[in-house]
Amino acid sequence: MKLLIVDDSKVIRNRIERAVSFRKVKKVMTAANGEEALAVFRQHLPELVTMDITMPKLDGIECTAAMVGLKPDVQILIVSAIADKATAIEALKRGANGFLLKPFTDVQLNDALEMLMRGRSHG
Amino acid sequence: MDEDDIQVLIDGTVGYFHGLVDRTTEIGAPYLMSREQPVVSDYTGIIGIEGARHGLIYFTAPSAMLRHILLAHGEVQATTEIMADIVGEVANTISGNARKHFGSEFEISVPTVHRGPEAAKALYLAERSFLIPISWRQYQAALVVSLRD
Known about the structure:
Chain A is of the alpha/beta class. Chain A has helices spanning 10-19, 34-44, 60-70, 85-93, 106-117; strands spanning 2-6, 27-31, 48-51, 75-80, 98-101. In chain A, strands 2-1-3-4-5 form a 5-stranded parallel beta sheet, sandwiched between helices. Chains A and B meet through helix 1 of A and helix 1, helix 3 and helix 4 of B.
């Protein structure tokens, strides 16, 4: 399984990469904005994505919709500080499978990703 | 801004530091900051606010405190780039979390980051700005909220 981590913060990208503890994840890729993420996504078609919302160039909700258009069975976990319900609902409507609020613990992140990999939504 | 609005940001600051960083971090009572002499430290992360309210929220902190926050994220690198990254991420997280109270019309920008006293020149402050003091050991950081209704 391939995981793509999308966040404009390198600290958060590194944090997620270190925290993910699934043996199933064989390859991890990262991107710092929505445009870069789409380019990596098209090339590697990962099964699992963690997606920030507030990013330069292309935001995480638009990027999510584009990825789902390219690969409808991709599992996308929004990992964002944005805490209002309307945004979470919009992200889910556009194809995200779960929502994890920043700041998060490693346990919360792994639980959310595990639920997504089992094909259940999280939020 | 009313007391409830400020309390939301105090709670968000407490939640971030006590939940993730260190429960010994003390969050003080907010006070009005001078528009002429804004408080800035080694690194400053600024979030622009648009929508139902306009202005900015910024987080400013000394390098030593940022290194401590980085360790809480498991990050042992403390380069200039990484310090700038985390100061913006703290500002983004606390501002983003505040949308639970303010709603989706509280639009937040990506962070812009400045080093040292030059940050003061990038601050377009509202008439009234509230400073929430954050203390860790002998170090002082601050979250500043400067919004017009």
